[in-house]
Amino acid sequence: MRYDTAVIGAGLAGLHTARLLASRGLRVLLIDRKRSLADGIHTTGIFVRKTWEDFPLPDEQLGRPIRDVTLYSPARRAMRLAADHDEFRIGRMSWIYLYLLDQCARAGVRFMPQTRFLEGDGTSITVSRGTNVERIDVRYVIGADGAQSRVARTFGLDTNRELLAGIEDVIPGRASKPQLHCYLDPRIAPGYIAWVADDGEESHIGLAGYRARFDPAAALERFRASLGNTSSRRIERRGGMIPVGGMLRRIANERALLVGDAAGAVSPLTAGGLDPAIRLSAFAADVAAAWLDRGDRAVLRQYSGDLFRARFMARTWMRRIIRTIESPLAMELACALLRTPPMRAVAAHVFFARGSFPDAPAIQLASSSHAASS
């Protein structure tokens, strides 16, 4: 059997793209290395308000809403921010993945678990399943295979160069009021933050930073000890690489395109990637379907990271500034500035602004424009 598209990677971006393509009547193959999508979750699973308002996520698999965010300096001086609306919800990601996989199956997607993508040539892909190597005829490939995408390297697309290493423990929640705590301390999270996200049911204690500057597992143990929280039963340990260099430019050609982390679709500043994973996937499905239907290269040129990079230039520069802060004293001074009224407003904007990456109106405009040009 020849497939129209092979989606490599069954995370949020891959599942959403596969379902959308299959709903258009395309023959879609979904490939993932894991035995079960409930295994080896990499993300904390924090969804922003705009996502659950705009997309049909299973409400019962989203935790209680969070409005309160507290920022801590290296000396643990606190700055509290409170939103006017519910802003964050922690998703039960294993169940959300299984729910989306069921939606894919209903749309006609064929799922191949425990399968590794090896290579492709524009007309087929080669995969391994255990000791067996198999060649599958495929017209087009969607790379949803994470920050260090093999699809990107295979098909000559851009690759992520600036990465954070993240790690967290999931333990039983104990907060009476859901809260998000963020710790700015280069000794435990160089170049990024440590966090505690607790919605009363689950508590996620984690951190991320530049891999060359720290040992993530050791830093997590020190962080938990500093919280006096080392005895709680660990339900799960998660970890993975987070691209923070901004949206990649060349994310599509005649043989493949990239979505999600593979495309760098993660906020350079906050490292949030779930909302852009869904939004970019909707655009990707439009582009891939149009390319397969008409073979118009102008359609592929619409799918460019340049559509999104300019809007996030300020966050990219803020990422560069944070990357340079290596001493606790410098971070303490930066946190003191954050407590001034103008910078406090900036911090509130970063956490609570409704803006998304990528911008939905820009995607709709691009979709309509390439439809009109055909």
Features:
374 residues, alpha/beta, 12 helices, 24% strand, globular, disordered C terminus
Query: Count the strands?
Result: 16
Tally of helical segments: 12
Low-confidence region ranges: 360-374
Structural class: alpha/beta
Which H/E pattern describes the elements? Answer: EHEEHEEEHEEEEHEEEEHEEHHHHHHH
The chain-level mean pLDDT equals 91
Predict the CATH topology: FAD/NAD(P)-binding domain
What is the CATH C level class, in words?
Alpha Beta
Largest sheet: 7 strands, mixed
The coarse overall form would be globular
> Domains counted in the coordinates: how many?
1
| Termini separation | 29 Å
Q: What portion of residues belong to β-strands? A: 15-25%
Identify the quaternary structure here: single chain
Query: Could you give me the name of the CATH homologous superfamily?
Result: FAD/NAD(P)-binding domain
Helical amount: 25-40%
